[in-house]
Amino acid sequence: MTITSAMPTAKERPRRTRTKRASSRPALKLSQLLPSHIDLREPLKAVLVCEDCKTWVPVTGMQSKVQKLVPHHIGKAEEADAIRCRSSNRRIEWDMTIPEWRQALADAVTEASSRQSTTVLPKAFSPQTDRTLRARAERTLAGRVADWDAVLPRVAATDKNRWATPAGDAPTECPAVPLTTLHPKR
Description:
Number of strands: 8
Distance between the termini: 67 Å
Shape: elongated
Strand order of the largest sheet: 2-3-4-5
Number of helices: 3
Largest sheet: 4 strands, antiparallel
C-alpha cells in the first residue's frame, strides 16, 4: 500500500497532559494495588491497571508535581462507544518507592510459584492393578498361546449352544425362522 497525500496521519500527541483538571475521585495509592498491576520498570513511562475498566493505562506528569492516569475510554477500539472511564485523570499517590515495588513484586512471584505444583506425580496403583500389570509384563508369547488353547474348547461349546434351537419354541402363527443366512442374488 502506497502512502499518498490524501491519507490521514496521526498527530503528534503532547508529551505531558496540559489540563489542570483532575478526577474528583480519591487519589489512587500504589500500595493498595497489586504489585503485578503496576509497571515501574521504566519510571518515566509508568503504567498501571485501571481499577474501573481493568485496562493498562499510562501515567502522565511523571516529571511534574501531580501524576495522573491518562484519559481513556471503556470498551474496545472501533467496537464499542467511546465512553470515558471514571478513573480518567485520576491522581496517583506515590506511597511506594521503586525498590519497594520490586521487592513486593518478587514476593508475589515467589508466593504464586509456591502455590503451583512443580512436579506431576502419577496416580498410585491398587495392589490388584499392580499384580495384573506385572503379570502382563512377565507373560511370553508361548504362555499366551497356551492360554488361548485352554480357552478354545469352552468357546466352541458356547458357540454350539448358541446355534442350537430349543424344541417347542417354534412360532405358531407365522412361517418358521430361517436358520441359514439368506444372501439375495443380484
